[in-house]
Amino acid sequence: MNGRRTAAVGAVATAAAATVTGAALTATAVTFARAVVTPRRHKPDDLDVLQVGPRRVVLSATADTVVPGRYGVWTDGGRGHFRVGDVLGADEDRVTRELLAVDSGVPAPGAGRWNQYYFAGDPTAALGLAHEDVLVPSEVGALPCWSVPGPAEGASHTWAVLVHGRGATREEALRAVPVLHDLGLPCLVPAYRNDADAPEAEPGLYGLGDTEWRDVEAVARYALDRGARRLLLVGWSMGGAIVLQLVARSALAGHVAALVLDGPVVDWFDVLDHQARQAGVPVRLGRLGLQLLGHPVGRRLVGLAGPVDLRAMDWVRRAEELALPVLLLHSDADDYVPSGPSQRLAQARPDLITYVASSTARHTKEWNVDPQGWESAVREFLAPRPGDAA
Protein backbone atom coordinates (compact mmCIF):
# COMPACT_ATOMS: atom_id res chain seq x y z
CA MET A 1 0.00 0.00 0.00
CA ASN A 2 2.76 2.40 0.92
CA GLY A 3 4.58 1.49 -2.31
CA ARG A 4 1.51 2.24 -4.39
CA ARG A 5 1.03 5.54 -2.59
CA THR A 6 4.67 6.43 -3.10
CA ALA A 7 4.41 5.61 -6.81
CA ALA A 8 1.22 7.64 -7.11
CA VAL A 9 2.78 10.59 -5.34
CA GLY A 10 5.83 10.31 -7.60
CA ALA A 11 3.67 10.27 -10.71
CA VAL A 12 1.76 13.34 -9.54
CA ALA A 13 5.02 15.12 -8.74
CA THR A 14 6.44 14.23 -12.16
CA ALA A 15 3.31 15.46 -13.90
CA ALA A 16 3.34 18.65 -11.85
CA ALA A 17 7.01 19.23 -12.68
CA ALA A 18 6.33 18.66 -16.36
CA THR A 19 3.46 21.14 -16.21
CA VAL A 20 5.62 23.73 -14.50
CA THR A 21 8.44 23.15 -16.97
CA GLY A 22 6.06 23.37 -19.93
CA ALA A 23 4.61 26.59 -18.59
CA ALA A 24 8.11 28.04 -18.10
CA LEU A 25 9.12 27.09 -21.65
CA THR A 26 5.93 28.61 -23.06
CA ALA A 27 6.52 31.78 -21.05
CA THR A 28 10.04 32.03 -22.51
CA ALA A 29 8.66 31.57 -26.02
CA VAL A 30 5.97 34.20 -25.42
CA THR A 31 8.54 36.65 -24.06
CA PHE A 32 10.75 36.16 -27.13
CA ALA A 33 7.84 36.54 -29.55
CA ARG A 34 6.55 39.61 -27.76
CA ALA A 35 9.98 41.25 -27.97
CA VAL A 36 10.02 40.65 -31.73
CA VAL A 37 6.77 42.52 -32.33
CA THR A 38 7.07 45.27 -29.70
CA PRO A 39 8.24 48.69 -30.98
CA ARG A 40 11.24 50.01 -29.07
CA ARG A 41 10.55 53.73 -28.94
CA HIS A 42 12.96 54.77 -26.20
CA LYS A 43 16.55 54.56 -27.36
CA PRO A 44 19.04 55.30 -24.60
CA ASP A 45 22.49 56.80 -25.00
CA ASP A 46 24.97 54.09 -25.92
CA LEU A 47 28.39 55.76 -26.07
CA ASP A 48 30.54 58.44 -24.48
CA VAL A 49 32.08 61.40 -26.24
CA LEU A 50 35.49 61.59 -24.56
CA GLN A 51 37.30 64.38 -26.40
CA VAL A 52 36.49 66.81 -29.20
CA GLY A 53 39.06 68.53 -31.41
CA PRO A 54 38.85 70.69 -34.53
CA ARG A 55 38.93 67.75 -36.94
CA ARG A 56 38.62 64.69 -34.77
CA VAL A 57 36.57 63.25 -31.95
CA VAL A 58 37.36 60.53 -29.43
CA LEU A 59 34.54 58.14 -28.55
CA SER A 60 34.24 55.15 -26.26
CA ALA A 61 34.94 51.93 -28.16
CA THR A 62 31.77 49.94 -28.89
CA ALA A 63 30.78 47.39 -31.50
CA ASP A 64 29.39 50.29 -33.56
CA THR A 65 31.94 53.04 -33.04
CA VAL A 66 34.94 50.99 -34.23
CA VAL A 67 33.54 49.93 -37.62
CA PRO A 68 34.56 51.68 -40.86
CA GLY A 69 32.28 54.10 -42.66
CA ARG A 70 30.38 57.35 -42.16
CA TYR A 71 28.02 57.72 -39.20
CA GLY A 72 26.49 60.30 -36.89
CA VAL A 73 26.28 60.90 -33.16
CA TRP A 74 23.34 62.47 -31.34
CA THR A 75 24.24 64.42 -28.21
CA ASP A 76 22.44 66.37 -25.53
CA GLY A 77 19.40 64.11 -25.59
CA GLY A 78 19.06 64.37 -29.37
CA ARG A 79 19.33 68.15 -29.55
CA GLY A 80 22.88 68.04 -30.90
CA HIS A 81 24.28 66.06 -33.81
CA PHE A 82 27.63 65.65 -35.53
CA ARG A 83 28.98 63.34 -38.24
CA VAL A 84 32.09 61.21 -38.22
CA GLY A 85 34.18 59.49 -40.86
CA ASP A 86 37.34 57.41 -40.95
CA VAL A 87 38.77 55.67 -37.92
CA LEU A 88 42.08 57.39 -37.15
CA GLY A 89 43.09 55.18 -34.25
CA ALA A 90 41.64 52.78 -31.69
CA ASP A 91 42.43 50.69 -28.64
CA GLU A 92 40.33 48.57 -26.30
CA ASP A 93 38.63 51.54 -24.66
CA ARG A 94 38.47 54.38 -27.17
CA VAL A 95 38.36 55.16 -30.86
CA THR A 96 39.43 58.36 -32.62
CA ARG A 97 37.44 59.28 -35.72
CA GLU A 98 37.48 62.07 -38.25
CA LEU A 99 34.96 64.81 -37.41
CA LEU A 100 33.22 65.62 -40.71
CA ALA A 101 30.48 68.08 -39.80
CA VAL A 102 28.48 69.53 -36.92
CA ASP A 103 24.78 69.78 -37.75
CA SER A 104 23.44 71.14 -34.47
CA GLY A 105 24.65 71.92 -30.98
CA VAL A 106 28.27 72.12 -29.85
CA PRO A 107 30.13 68.81 -29.54
CA ALA A 108 31.47 68.32 -26.03
CA PRO A 109 32.40 65.43 -23.76
CA GLY A 110 29.35 63.60 -22.45
CA ALA A 111 26.85 60.90 -23.31
CA GLY A 112 25.81 60.30 -26.90
CA ARG A 113 23.88 57.93 -29.14
CA TRP A 114 25.14 56.36 -32.34
CA ASN A 115 23.34 57.30 -35.56
CA GLN A 116 23.75 54.62 -38.22
CA TYR A 117 21.82 56.77 -40.71
CA TYR A 118 24.65 59.36 -40.90
CA PHE A 119 22.14 62.15 -41.62
CA ALA A 120 19.73 63.62 -39.05
CA GLY A 121 16.63 65.73 -39.44
CA ASP A 122 14.32 66.17 -42.42
CA PRO A 123 15.47 66.30 -46.08
CA THR A 124 15.80 70.08 -46.06
CA ALA A 125 17.87 70.25 -42.88
CA ALA A 126 19.94 67.15 -43.57
CA LEU A 127 20.36 67.25 -47.35
CA GLY A 128 19.55 70.79 -48.42
CA LEU A 129 16.72 69.50 -50.61
CA ALA A 130 13.37 71.25 -50.55
CA HIS A 131 10.63 69.06 -49.15
CA GLU A 132 7.06 69.25 -47.94
CA ASP A 133 5.63 67.62 -44.83
CA VAL A 134 2.43 65.90 -45.94
CA LEU A 135 -0.15 63.69 -44.26
CA VAL A 136 -1.23 60.62 -46.19
CA PRO A 137 -4.68 59.18 -45.36
CA SER A 138 -4.62 55.51 -44.38
CA GLU A 139 -6.82 52.99 -42.60
CA VAL A 140 -5.05 53.77 -39.30
CA GLY A 141 -5.06 57.56 -39.67
CA ALA A 142 -2.91 60.26 -41.22
CA LEU A 143 0.66 59.07 -41.89
CA PRO A 144 3.42 61.72 -41.70
CA CYS A 145 5.42 61.71 -44.92
CA TRP A 146 8.29 63.71 -46.40
CA SER A 147 7.66 64.61 -50.01
CA VAL A 148 10.79 65.57 -51.96
CA PRO A 149 9.91 66.72 -55.50
CA GLY A 150 12.10 65.81 -58.42
CA PRO A 151 14.20 68.50 -60.09
CA ALA A 152 12.25 71.06 -62.13
CA GLU A 153 13.81 69.76 -65.34
CA GLY A 154 14.02 66.10 -66.19
CA ALA A 155 11.62 64.95 -63.48
CA SER A 156 10.55 61.34 -63.91
CA HIS A 157 7.04 59.91 -63.95
CA THR A 158 8.46 57.21 -61.69
CA TRP A 159 8.19 58.10 -58.00
CA ALA A 160 10.21 56.45 -55.26
CA VAL A 161 8.65 55.33 -51.97
CA LEU A 162 11.30 54.74 -49.31
CA VAL A 163 10.42 52.45 -46.39
CA HIS A 164 12.51 52.25 -43.22
CA GLY A 165 13.02 49.15 -41.11
CA ARG A 166 11.85 47.82 -37.77
CA GLY A 167 12.52 50.22 -34.93
CA ALA A 168 14.12 52.75 -37.28
CA THR A 169 12.91 56.22 -38.28
CA ARG A 170 12.38 57.97 -41.58
CA GLU A 171 15.95 59.25 -41.29
CA GLU A 172 17.12 55.79 -42.33
CA ALA A 173 15.98 56.58 -45.88
CA LEU A 174 17.82 59.91 -46.19
CA ARG A 175 20.96 58.21 -47.49
CA ALA A 176 19.13 57.17 -50.66
CA VAL A 177 17.35 60.44 -51.42
CA PRO A 178 20.22 62.39 -53.09
CA VAL A 179 20.97 59.77 -55.75
CA LEU A 180 17.27 59.24 -56.51
CA HIS A 181 16.69 62.99 -56.68
CA ASP A 182 19.68 63.33 -59.01
CA LEU A 183 18.08 60.69 -61.24
CA GLY A 184 14.94 62.83 -61.40
CA LEU A 185 12.69 60.76 -59.12
CA PRO A 186 10.30 62.46 -56.70
CA CYS A 187 10.63 60.75 -53.31
CA LEU A 188 8.09 59.95 -50.61
CA VAL A 189 9.43 58.92 -47.20
CA PRO A 190 6.55 57.82 -44.95
CA ALA A 191 6.14 56.76 -41.36
CA TYR A 192 3.93 53.73 -40.84
CA ARG A 193 1.70 52.38 -38.08
CA ASN A 194 3.20 52.25 -34.59
CA ASP A 195 6.15 54.49 -35.46
CA ALA A 196 6.74 57.08 -32.74
CA ASP A 197 5.44 59.84 -35.05
CA ALA A 198 2.62 57.85 -36.69
CA PRO A 199 -0.80 56.61 -35.59
CA GLU A 200 -0.83 53.65 -33.24
CA ALA A 201 -2.77 50.68 -34.55
CA GLU A 202 -4.23 48.40 -31.91
CA PRO A 203 -2.66 46.66 -30.12
CA GLY A 204 0.42 48.78 -30.82
CA LEU A 205 2.60 45.89 -32.09
CA TYR A 206 4.43 45.22 -35.33
CA GLY A 207 2.96 42.92 -37.95
CA LEU A 208 6.48 42.34 -39.36
CA GLY A 209 5.21 43.48 -42.77
CA ASP A 210 1.96 41.52 -42.65
CA THR A 211 -0.01 44.66 -41.76
CA GLU A 212 2.34 47.58 -42.48
CA TRP A 213 2.22 47.03 -46.25
CA ARG A 214 -1.26 48.57 -46.28
CA ASP A 215 0.21 51.85 -45.03
CA VAL A 216 2.77 51.85 -47.83
CA GLU A 217 -0.05 51.03 -50.24
CA ALA A 218 -1.78 54.22 -49.06
CA VAL A 219 1.39 56.17 -49.85
CA ALA A 220 1.61 54.51 -53.27
CA ARG A 221 -1.99 55.56 -53.96
CA TYR A 222 -1.12 59.10 -52.87
CA ALA A 223 1.72 59.17 -55.43
CA LEU A 224 -0.44 57.80 -58.25
CA ASP A 225 -3.17 60.33 -57.49
CA ARG A 226 -0.58 63.11 -57.95
CA GLY A 227 0.83 62.14 -61.29
CA ALA A 228 3.10 59.14 -60.74
CA ARG A 229 2.81 56.49 -63.42
CA ARG A 230 5.25 54.00 -62.01
CA LEU A 231 6.70 53.34 -58.58
CA LEU A 232 10.12 52.38 -57.30
CA LEU A 233 9.89 50.81 -53.84
CA VAL A 234 12.98 50.99 -51.64
CA GLY A 235 13.10 49.07 -48.35
CA TRP A 236 15.61 48.56 -45.57
CA SER A 237 15.44 45.47 -43.32
CA MET A 238 11.76 44.99 -42.33
CA GLY A 239 11.00 47.68 -44.90
CA GLY A 240 12.05 45.10 -47.47
CA ALA A 241 9.53 42.63 -46.05
CA ILE A 242 6.89 45.35 -46.21
CA VAL A 243 7.39 46.27 -49.87
CA LEU A 244 7.54 42.60 -50.88
CA GLN A 245 4.13 42.13 -49.28
CA LEU A 246 2.81 45.11 -51.20
CA VAL A 247 3.84 43.70 -54.57
CA ALA A 248 2.36 40.32 -53.58
CA ARG A 249 -0.95 41.55 -52.16
CA SER A 250 -1.84 45.05 -53.34
CA ALA A 251 -4.14 45.95 -56.22
CA LEU A 252 -1.57 48.65 -57.01
CA ALA A 253 1.25 46.15 -57.59
CA GLY A 254 0.97 46.60 -61.35
CA HIS A 255 2.29 50.14 -61.00
CA VAL A 256 5.51 49.01 -59.31
CA ALA A 257 8.42 49.05 -61.75
CA ALA A 258 11.21 47.74 -59.54
CA LEU A 259 12.47 47.18 -55.98
CA VAL A 260 15.64 48.20 -54.20
CA LEU A 261 16.21 46.16 -51.04
CA ASP A 262 18.97 46.85 -48.52
CA GLY A 263 19.64 44.18 -45.89
CA PRO A 264 16.05 42.95 -46.34
CA VAL A 265 14.15 40.37 -44.36
CA VAL A 266 13.20 37.78 -46.95
CA ASP A 267 12.85 34.88 -44.48
CA TRP A 268 11.70 35.72 -40.94
CA PHE A 269 12.35 32.18 -39.71
CA ASP A 270 16.05 32.51 -40.52
CA VAL A 271 16.27 36.00 -38.99
CA LEU A 272 14.53 35.09 -35.77
CA ASP A 273 16.45 31.83 -35.35
CA HIS A 274 19.60 33.95 -35.55
CA GLN A 275 18.28 36.48 -33.06
CA ALA A 276 17.21 33.73 -30.66
CA ARG A 277 20.76 32.40 -30.67
CA GLN A 278 22.15 35.89 -30.06
CA ALA A 279 19.74 36.36 -27.15
CA GLY A 280 20.70 33.01 -25.61
CA VAL A 281 17.25 31.56 -26.28
CA PRO A 282 17.23 27.95 -27.54
CA VAL A 283 16.20 27.95 -31.18
CA ARG A 284 13.39 25.47 -30.47
CA LEU A 285 11.86 27.95 -28.01
CA GLY A 286 12.29 30.75 -30.52
CA ARG A 287 10.49 28.60 -33.07
CA LEU A 288 7.70 28.00 -30.55
CA GLY A 289 7.40 31.78 -30.24
CA LEU A 290 7.13 32.06 -34.03
CA GLN A 291 4.42 29.40 -34.04
CA LEU A 292 2.52 31.46 -31.46
CA LEU A 293 2.66 34.51 -33.77
CA GLY A 294 0.84 32.60 -36.48
CA HIS A 295 -1.54 30.59 -34.31
CA PRO A 296 -5.16 31.82 -34.04
CA VAL A 297 -5.08 31.30 -30.26
CA GLY A 298 -1.37 31.54 -29.52
CA ARG A 299 -1.15 35.06 -30.97
CA ARG A 300 -3.38 36.20 -28.08
CA LEU A 301 -0.66 35.19 -25.62
CA VAL A 302 1.69 37.52 -27.51
CA GLY A 303 -0.93 40.28 -27.66
CA LEU A 304 -1.51 40.44 -31.41
CA ALA A 305 -4.88 41.40 -32.86
CA GLY A 306 -4.54 38.70 -35.50
CA PRO A 307 -2.09 35.96 -36.51
CA VAL A 308 1.04 36.91 -38.47
CA ASP A 309 1.70 34.56 -41.38
CA LEU A 310 5.49 34.26 -41.53
CA ARG A 311 5.36 31.64 -44.26
CA ALA A 312 3.76 34.20 -46.56
CA MET A 313 6.86 36.35 -46.02
CA ASP A 314 9.36 33.60 -46.90
CA TRP A 315 10.56 34.81 -50.30
CA VAL A 316 13.17 32.11 -50.68
CA ARG A 317 10.27 29.66 -50.78
CA ARG A 318 8.22 32.02 -52.96
CA ALA A 319 11.05 32.97 -55.32
CA GLU A 320 9.17 31.81 -58.43
CA GLU A 321 6.44 34.38 -57.71
CA LEU A 322 8.74 37.37 -58.16
CA ALA A 323 7.94 39.27 -61.34
CA LEU A 324 9.89 42.53 -60.97
CA PRO A 325 13.52 43.61 -61.30
CA VAL A 326 15.17 43.72 -57.86
CA LEU A 327 18.40 45.32 -56.72
CA LEU A 328 19.38 43.45 -53.56
CA LEU A 329 22.27 44.77 -51.46
CA HIS A 330 23.33 42.72 -48.45
CA SER A 331 26.54 42.48 -46.45
CA ASP A 332 27.94 39.17 -45.27
CA ALA A 333 28.85 40.97 -42.04
CA ASP A 334 25.20 41.78 -41.28
CA ASP A 335 24.87 41.05 -37.56
CA TYR A 336 21.07 41.35 -37.39
CA VAL A 337 19.61 39.94 -40.62
CA PRO A 338 21.97 37.25 -41.97
CA SER A 339 22.63 37.47 -45.71
CA GLY A 340 22.12 33.77 -46.40
CA PRO A 341 18.44 33.99 -47.43
CA SER A 342 19.18 36.98 -49.69
CA GLN A 343 21.93 34.97 -51.37
CA ARG A 344 19.61 32.01 -51.87
CA LEU A 345 16.87 34.24 -53.27
CA ALA A 346 19.29 35.86 -55.71
CA GLN A 347 20.56 32.42 -56.80
CA ALA A 348 16.98 31.27 -57.38
CA ARG A 349 16.09 34.29 -59.58
CA PRO A 350 19.21 35.53 -61.41
CA ASP A 351 16.92 36.62 -64.25
CA LEU A 352 15.39 39.35 -62.07
CA ILE A 353 17.72 39.98 -59.14
CA THR A 354 20.89 42.03 -59.26
CA TYR A 355 22.79 41.03 -56.13
CA VAL A 356 25.44 43.31 -54.64
CA ALA A 357 27.44 41.61 -51.90
CA SER A 358 29.81 43.26 -49.45
CA SER A 359 31.88 41.99 -46.57
CA THR A 360 32.38 44.67 -43.89
CA ALA A 361 29.11 46.55 -43.38
CA ARG A 362 26.90 45.76 -40.41
CA HIS A 363 23.11 45.73 -40.73
CA THR A 364 21.81 48.15 -43.43
CA LYS A 365 25.10 50.06 -43.38
CA GLU A 366 26.22 49.21 -46.90
CA TRP A 367 25.92 52.87 -47.92
CA ASN A 368 27.88 54.02 -44.87
CA VAL A 369 30.86 51.85 -45.73
CA ASP A 370 30.83 52.55 -49.48
CA PRO A 371 28.56 55.46 -50.48
CA GLN A 372 29.92 55.67 -54.02
CA GLY A 373 29.53 51.94 -54.56
CA TRP A 374 25.96 51.94 -53.21
CA GLU A 375 24.92 54.89 -55.34
CA SER A 376 26.65 53.52 -58.44
CA ALA A 377 24.75 50.25 -58.05
CA VAL A 378 21.47 52.18 -57.84
CA ARG A 379 22.34 54.32 -60.87
CA GLU A 380 23.26 51.32 -62.97
CA PHE A 381 20.17 49.39 -61.89
CA LEU A 382 17.85 52.29 -62.73
CA ALA A 383 19.54 53.17 -66.04
CA PRO A 384 16.92 53.28 -68.82
CA ARG A 385 16.38 49.98 -70.51
CA PRO A 386 15.17 49.58 -74.11
CA GLY A 387 11.44 50.13 -74.16
CA ASP A 388 11.30 52.05 -70.88
CA ALA A 389 8.98 55.06 -70.86
CA ALA A 390 9.97 58.30 -69.21
UniProtKB/TrEMBL annotation:
Residue ranges of every copy of the AB hydrolase-1 domain listed in the record: 161-279
EC number: 3.4.-.-
Hydrolase is among the record's keywords: yes
Taxonomic superkingdom: Bacteria
GO molecular function, one term: hydrolase activity
Pfam family, one: Abhydrolase_1
Signal peptide residues on this chain, from the entry's feature table: 1-29
Keyword Transcription regulation: no
Keywords: Hydrolase, Signal
Primary enzyme class: hydrolase
Protein name (database record): Alpha/beta hydrolase family protein
